[in-house]
Amino acid sequence: MKSSFLSRSVLLACLAVLSLSQAQQPEASAPKQPTEEEMKQMIQKRIDEIEKLGWTRQGKGSLGGKAEVAIPPGYRFTSGDGTRQLMAMYGNPPTQRELGMLATEGLGPWIIFEFDESGYVKDDEKDKIDADDMLAKLREGQEQGNEYRREHGMAELEILGWVVPPRYNEKTHNLEWATRLKSVGSEGISINYNTRLLGRTGVMEVTLVCEPEEMEKMIAEQEKILTGFSYIEGQRYAEFREGDKVAKYGLTALIAGTGAFAAAKMGLFGKLGIFFAKLGKAAILLVVGALAGLKKLFGKMFGSRQPPGE
């Protein structure tokens, strides 16, 4: 009964957007809109697609035999395969380095874990990080990445600037920075908060994808979540031994290299944009205007799932 009620609520919200869209367009130029039954089928299909990815909601998530992360209350974990499928579903090309993802229920923020088997990265460049130079290189890399996006029918991305300039924590061996980006031709803004966790054989790339209004809360939340992250024995940065593979690059390249086509990831607006793709440009603009309210409704669409007994 509850699931049916939520589905009807979301359906009504979608139809309200459709009505507003049609009211703002001349009848002759209005695109053909899905019927009520078609909208219902679209919603149910998306629910089924996401749940089929396979989610674990308690215990620990295994990250490719390299590390593990505790699954906090309110989050769910999927493997590398599930991560790649979900990213592709929402127009984010996978890197093929994905090991897993933590996500809130519904369409909330993502925390994506990828591993670069590059070898031990020395941190002797920690005092040579030039934020302006790094931003220019990120933008240059994204321009190259947009060529790939155009070829594959994906929206181009524009890096608008720093939210958090690059910084390195010598105690935890974590490199962090955050960028604000947008999908070209839309008003949707997304935040990518990047953390690089240095290990013995490479680097765990952690990307928090969230909306601007979520950033402050989610950065603090991710810090807590990462206290539940650990490399397995033999993979820790401090376990480096002479003769181990050493990376051919340092900390600055870890930042500049993320301009590659798959690095920048769009969050909620990208997801809603694809979901509403059949509704026409006016409907998309209305979704942007009502983003906060629709986000809550779409969160309900997927339900709140907890492990048995909780």
Helicity range: 25-40%
Strand content: 15-25%
List the total number of helices. Answer: 9
| CATH topology label of the largest domain | Protein Transport Mog1p, Chain A
Q: Give the ordered list of helices and strands.
A: HHEEEHEEHEEEEHEHHHH
- SS class: alpha+beta
Strand order of the largest sheet: 3-4-5-9-8-7-6
Low-confidence stretches: 1-25, 258-262, 268-310
Note the main sheet.
7 strands, antiparallel
- What best-fitting shape do the alpha-carbon axes yield? globular
Q: Which architecture of the largest domain does the CATH hierarchy give at level 2?
A: 3-Layer(aba) Sandwich
Mean pLDDT: 76
CATH H level, superfamily name of the largest domain = Mog1/PsbP, alpha/beta/alpha sandwich
How far is it from the N-terminal to the C-terminal residue, by CA?
20 Å
The tally of strands reads: 10
Radius of gyration: 21 Å
CATH class of the largest domain: Alpha Beta
Number of domains: 2
Task: Describe what this molecule looks like in 3D.
The protein is of the alpha+beta class and 310 residues long. It folds into 2 domains: 2-50 and 278-301, no CATH class; 55-270, Protein Transport Mog1p, Chain A (3-Layer(aba) Sandwich), CATH 3.40.1000. Helix content is 37%, strand content 23%. The chain contains 9 helices and 10 strands. It has helices spanning 2-24, 36-51, 80-89, 131-151, 215-226, 251-256, 268-275, 281-289, 291-301; strands at residues 60-63, 67-70, 75-79, 98-104, 110-116, 157-169, 174-183, 189-198, 203-210, 229-231. The chain has a 7-stranded antiparallel sheet, sandwiched between helices. Strand 4 (98-104) and strand 5 form a beta hairpin. Helix 1 (2-24) crosses helix 8 and helix 1 runs antiparallel to helix 9. It is globular, with a radius of gyration of 21 Å. The model is unreliable at 1-25, 258-262 and 268-310 (pLDDT under 50).
